[in-house]
């Protein structure tokens, strides 16, 4: 069994205490016991699936993460291939503008297999360059499916040259899932050691995991407000997150036609030539096409029936709109952070409706 400091919760990294059940990181167990100890919050998340908010504020996580810049270590930045720009996070980007950084591109299993790794690597290098990041390497994995885990772990320890490794990233990119996959690949562990949940802020502090003479650190995920996980309940978000390879859904639209993605977003084709729109969302999200005229009334009437996404029945959103132009000279994606993206092929203008705290963005087409 890996020997990890027992005064810290093995699931989230918080400093354990057994005196106040209402205070953070409480455990009823003896702190001197030889058992693997979890705080009460982690225990309830792991065994009962309870949704318990973090006791720390977003700024607390940033303070914790900022100390990594002072370490002589290899920084391993995990990004979500489904939301690359949203994974960058300015706070983390500043910390990774150094020579000792490796990029792990997670959730490779969600993108179509026909998309080559070489093409993805080329696009990632361009995006990283725009953020001033020149990584030692870019490694593609699926932490959930445990794809390319052994080779990635070997590569990380070779690149680190004996230095400790800090796994960093935004919430929901899969850091803790990745580390659990590393542990299972290198030990006889069958169960997850580190607590995994869609609840933002599951990891509360550094979790130190010895690997021989080196230590690998799981770190708290930094909050990204521009993410669908922040407007949906945890149970609802789990349902709209893709669980397997995304299949293309292609729609030929004329101006004055509209696509609804469940009840979570809407796209109006405002003007332009007849064009193709390729949707990349979880299959649980139904795409509904109709004429734009009367779409406001259509939404109000059907949001709890035809347009109901797998989300809370009583949850309705106030929407904001964003206009995007596109043309034949470049194939573009409109990304809805934490939900998916639509590839535009043609020319014209679209209006995107998203919940008020979610701002979509345009990028060069990934696929």
User: How big is the Rg?
Assistant: 22 Å
**H and E order:** HHEHHEHEHEHEEHEEEEEHEEEEE
**Helix coverage percent:** 10-25%
Structural class: alpha+beta
| General form | globular
Count of distinct structural domains:
2
CATH architecture of the largest domain: 3-Layer(aba) Sandwich
Biggest pleated-sheet summary:
6 strands, mixed
CATH topology of the largest domain: Rossmann fold
Strand order of the largest sheet: 3-2-1-4-6-5
Number of helices: 9
Structural write-up:
The protein folds into 2 domains: 40-224, P-loop containing nucleotide triphosphate hydrolases (Rossmann fold); 249-364, no CATH class. Helix 5 (117-130) links the parallel strand 2 (101-106) and strand 3. The strands form 3 sheets. The chain has a 6-stranded mixed β-sheet with strand order 3-2-1-4-6-5, with helices on both faces. A 5-stranded antiparallel β-sheet has the order 7-10-14-13-16, with no helix packed on it. Strands 11-8-9-15-12 form a 5-stranded antiparallel β-sheet, with no helix packed on it. It is 22% helix and 25% strand. By secondary structure, it is α+β, with helices and mostly antiparallel strands. It has helices at residues 40-48, 58-66, 84-88, 90-95, 117-130, 149-160, 175-186, 234-240, 295-302; strands spanning 73-80, 101-106, 138-140, 164-168, 207-211, 214-218, 249-253, 257-261, 265-272, 275-280, 287-291, 319-326, 332-336, 340-345, 348-355, 361-364. The chain is globular and about 70 Å long. Mean pLDDT is 83; it is low at 1-5 and 195-201.
């Amino acid at each position: 069994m890996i020997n990890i400091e027992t005064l810290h919760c093995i699931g989230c990294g918080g400093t354990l205490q057994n005196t106040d059940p209402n205070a953070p990181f409480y455990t009823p167990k003896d702190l001197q016991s030889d058992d693997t100890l979890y705080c009460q919050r982690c225990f309830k998340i792991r065994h009962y699936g309870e949704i318990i908010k973090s006791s720390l504020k977003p700024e607390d996580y940033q303070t914790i993460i900022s100390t990594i810049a002072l370490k002589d270590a290899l920084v391993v930045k995990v990004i979500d291939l489904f939301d690359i720009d949203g994974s960058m996070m300015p706070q983390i980007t500043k910390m990774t503008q150094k020579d000792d950084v490796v990029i792990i591109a997670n959730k490779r299993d969600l993108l179509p297999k026909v998309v080559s790794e070489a093409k993805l690597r080329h696009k990632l290098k361009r995006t990283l360059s725009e953020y001033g990041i020149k990584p030692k390497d870019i490694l593609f994995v699926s932490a959930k499916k445990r794809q390319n885990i052994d080779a990635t772990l070997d590569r990380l320890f070779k690149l680190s040259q004996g230095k400790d490794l800090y796994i960093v990233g935004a919430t929901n990119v899969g850091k803790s899932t990745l580390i659990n996959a590393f542990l299972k690949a290198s030990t006889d562990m069958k169960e997850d050691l580190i607590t995994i949940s869609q609840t933002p802020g599951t990891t509360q502090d550094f979790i130190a995991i010895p690997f021989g003479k080196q230590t690998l650190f799981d770190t708290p995920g930094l909050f990204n407000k521009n993410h669908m996980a922040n407007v949906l309940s945890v149970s609802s978000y789990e349902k709209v997150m893709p669980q397997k390879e995304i299949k293309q859904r292609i729609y030929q639209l004329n101006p004055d036609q509209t696509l609804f993605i469940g009840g979570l977003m809407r796209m109006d084709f405002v003007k332009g030539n007849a064009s193709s729109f390729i949707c990349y969302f979880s299959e649980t999200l139904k795409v509904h096409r109709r004429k734009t005229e009367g779409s406001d009334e259509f939404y109000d009437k059907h949001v709890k029936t035809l347009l109901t996404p797998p989300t809370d029945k009583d949850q309705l959103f106030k929407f904001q709109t964003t206009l995007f132009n596109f043309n034949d000279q470049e194939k573009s994606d409109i990304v809805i952070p934490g939900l998916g993206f639509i590839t535009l092929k043609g020319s014209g203008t679209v209006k995107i409706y998203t919940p008020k705290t979610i701002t979509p963005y345009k990028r060069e087409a990934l696929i």
